[in-house]
């Protein structure tokens, strides 16, 4: 599986720390709190099911799952400080995608290029031709991915590697959706219960080999 790089920067992305988590055991990865899906990208998972409650984030992923390389290539580079996505006739989701790049490490997209987001001194990628090239290069790897707008409880119980990364308790206030009811039927508590049941079954299986 070929490693993929982030399609956009996002607050709380796990891409940089994914190497500290175990590799997926299954081809299918489910992320019930998707964000920018850092874990699935890092391990280049071919089949991924994403769920997130944030319509902006889901809009960006839906756009990435349907957009063509030609459309990405045609997006404006916004290299001049002060230039804004609103100066261009673009789909809203494209404006959000660019906006996450203009507001690195944030949970909210920005509209215009600032001097701060134009700096290149930290060798971080900013929005422009190189970011577009990265997206274009990787689009084909998303053919087995899907995204659904909704709470984590919409993720069905399936044999897969689950990467569960809910909003932080304190710092979660930066997300548009940060209240998680863990007691919902089919909620994280139930997920954990099913996972430990599976683990027990797997251990029994191993013990009987
Ligand atoms: C810590 S971030 C996930 C970061 C992600 N692992 C990454 O690599 O970018 C948590 C995500 O959960 C989403 N979220 C908050 N409440 C949710 C809920 N009840 N169900 C599903 N997603 C939710 C937020 O919108 C946010 O994108």
Question: Can you walk me through this structure?
Answer:
The protein is of the alpha/beta class and 209 residues long. It has one domain (15-182). It has helices spanning 38-42, 55-66, 69-74, 92-102, 115-118, 129-138, 188-207; strands at 28-31, 47-52, 145-149, 161-162. Helix 2 packs across helix 4 (92-102). Bound molecules: S-adenosylmethionine. Residues 10, 12-15, 32-33, 35-38, 51-54, 57, 151-152, 165-167, 175, 177-178, 180 line the site of S-adenosylmethionine. S-adenosylmethionine binds at residues 10, 12-15, 32-33, 35-38, 51-54, 57, 151-152, 165-167, 175, 177-178, 180.
Order of helices and strands: EHEHHHHHEEH
Return Rg in Å: 18 Å
Mean pLDDT: 89
Count of helical stretches: 7
Strand order within the widest beta sheet? 3-2-1-4
Coarse structural class: alpha/beta
In which range does the helix fraction lie?
25-40%
Task: Assess the beta-strand content as a share of residues.
Answer: 5-15%
Give the overall shape, derived from the CA principal axes: globular
- Bound ions, cofactors and other small molecules, one mention each: S-adenosylmethionine
Tell me the number of strands: 4
Give the total of domains.
1
Largest sheet: 4 strands, parallel
Gap between N and C termini: 29 Å
* Low-pLDDT residue spans: 204-209
